[in-house]
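hey so i finally got around to running both of the ones u sent me last week. sorry it took forever, my laptop kept dying halfway thru and i had to restart like 3 times lol. anyway pasting them below in the order u listed, first the sequence line then the structure token line for each. didnt double check formatting much so if smth looks off just lmk and ill redo it

first one:
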Amino acid sequence: MSENNDNACAEVYVSGRVQGVYFRGFTQKVATRLGLVGYARNLPDGRVKVIAQGKRSLISELLDNLRIGPEHSSVESIDVSWVNTSDEFTEFSIKR
């Protein structure tokens, strides 16, 4: 199996105009289409935190989409950390 298909988990912090612009819903839609599991959550500091788990190549595709974001968003930066995978996720959800 190639490295791009290994199961991975990314912890992502997205900064910019990413709250109140359907960013979490956009993230959920793209992640679900890609077959990823995890969640998106607004943070008190204005960022969105995303946990995405699945094939590394598909997570990279999600990250490419997050850099663009939905209409009316303005992504300034994305910080990605690769973390240990977890078996706690069965779908991609929006957390409050």
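and the second one:
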Amino acid sequence: MKYNDFETLRKNIEFKHIYDNKNSLANRNLIMYVKENGTDTKKLGVSVSKKVGNSIVRHRLARLIREAFRLNTSHIPDGYDYVIVARASLKDKGYHETEQSMIHLLRLHKLYK
């Protein structure tokens, strides 16, 4: 699927390529994997484990992460694939905490303009 400013990763093999790169950082709520993709687009993959909650909770968290990414795309550089994994502690958090956690990880990766 293609949003205005980024594409989404859908296939398991795409996620595996990024996980194998082992360039990850984490905070209390999220884990972020980053890999250069050699193109002029950014791609986002979101992963929420069944350990986090039922399908309603998992889909809500995935939507929050995607929305935080979408609203910050002007600050996120092109040419990278991003996989964001939600941790169980994110379950009780809202949009603001999700966005702050994501920006924190982007800054740790030195990828937030």
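quick thing i noticed on the 2nd:
DSSP finds three helices and five strands in the chain.
anyway thats it, ttyl
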